[in-house]
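Methods, example record. To illustrate the input and output format used throughout this study, we show the complete record for DeoR/GlpR family DNA-binding transcription regulator. The sequence lines were provided to the predictor; the line carrying structure tokens was produced by it.
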Amino acid sequence: MLKEERQNYILEKLRELNRVKSNELAIELDVSEDTIRRDLNQLAHNGLILKVHGGALSTHQKLYSYNESSVFNRENKIAIAEKAISLIKEGQTIIISGGTTNLELARLIPHDLKITIYTYSLTIAMQLTEHPNAEVIIIGGKLNKDALVTVGVNVVKVLSKIKADICFLGTSGLDVEEGITEVGYEVSFIKRVMIASSQMAVTLVTSDKLNTTQRYPVCDLNEIHKIITELSPDDPLLYPFMRKGLDVL
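The corresponding predicted structure is encoded as:
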């Protein structure tokens, strides 16, 4: 991975989690901690992050509500969200995971649609307050203060009892062989329950996360019904996923 790609990855993680650790980044990116420290030093020098002992903090305020300046790679995420909107129908019950791509999806949901949305993301729930016809159910649990999502046993219990038409999964890594993977164990487990509780599972993924893997598995490709990226469906990068029988939008 090139230096610019590494640094963009670090900035994306900070926008999602507000804090990163050098040793974890080194493992995720398969480089030395010295390389990560040099990346953090440069990003700090450019005023993009706040470097602290063992890692870095975001210089952005947390996304308690929609804030377009804090969304990395926003144009691609809007393109993905616009495709995903076509799958949402009147009267559906939907589960939405966290992440900035799903935040764009929540923003673009038509205001006249009467739907029920479950989420464990505080930022997405706040965004959905602007949608008067959407019944929004935020699932309570232990608060992950970095990602602003709820996790834990209660989240799993609630999700396991839902009969959803569709779930939209934000994705940290998507690989033909490894399927969907996540950075954190608790979120990876919650997403497995989301899939099991939904008739259709849709993964929203920017192209930079294709053919990448994270530490914790979520599911194999055969458990996903659709992949949505900002790319055209005839992009060669998507061919391996289509050969696995996946519907690519």
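Annotations derived from this record:
The two ends are 27 Å apart (CA to CA).
The chain has two domains: 3-58, 68-248.
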